[in-house]
Design a protein that fits this description.
single chain; 174 residues; Glutaredoxin; seven-stranded mixed beta sheet; 18% strand
């Protein structure tokens, strides 16, 4: 039954993707968040302001096919992403325990953020009609402003695309 549910959710997410677009814009201040992560820490946007760029890759649901592919892409290429002066996260509305298991299973070498209250997902305007986050990646500069929004994330090449975007955006190397 769980497999059928996850398959249905995955199918609906793919079908609804084309119609989704966040109302946030490049140049706007990124909404603050304070979210628990799979590494046991709590992260907030204000912790990075003036210090480091961040990337938040929102994803719909742990253990679904596309999300697993995206997580593995980022985990397999973490050494290349970490060449930039950036902290990067995946984020979902899944409970922290679910994201911990998902991160461990996929050997994620970066924190996954959990937003079970859906407050941050709403602030980032990624919460869709299914009650899960749409697959949207936000690039946030050191000043706390949005410098790029990727609404066409391809799970299989998400790491390569992130690296290319960091390069194009002029994010400093670490």
């Amino acid at each position: 039954m769980k497999f059928l549910y996850l398959t249905l959710i995955s199918l609906l997410m793919v079908c609804s993707k084309a119609a989704y677009a966040t109302d946030l814009k490049v140049g706007q201040a990124a909404p603050n968040f304070k979210l628990e992560a799979t590494d046991g820490k709590t992260y907030s946007l204000k912790d990075f302001k003036g210090k480091q760029a961040i990337v938040i890759a929102w994803f719909p649901k742990a253990y679904t096919r596309g999300c697993t592919i995206e997580c593995k892409s980022l985990a397999d290429n973490g050494d290349k992403i970490k060449k930039y002066d950036v902290t990067y996260f995946m984020a979902s509305v899944d409970p922290i325990d679910e994201n911990r298991g998902f991160a461990k299973k996929n050997k994620a070498d970066f924190p996954l953020l959990s937003d079970p209250t859906k407050e941050a997902a709403k602030a980032y305007d990624v919460l869709n009609f299914l009650g899960v986050a749409s697959r949207v990646t936000f690039y946030i500069g050191k000043d706390g402003n949005i410098i790029h929004i990727d609404e066409d994330v391809k799970p299989r090449t998400s790491a390569e695309d992130m690296i290319n975007n960091l390069e194009k955006l002029g994010v400093n190397k670490a």
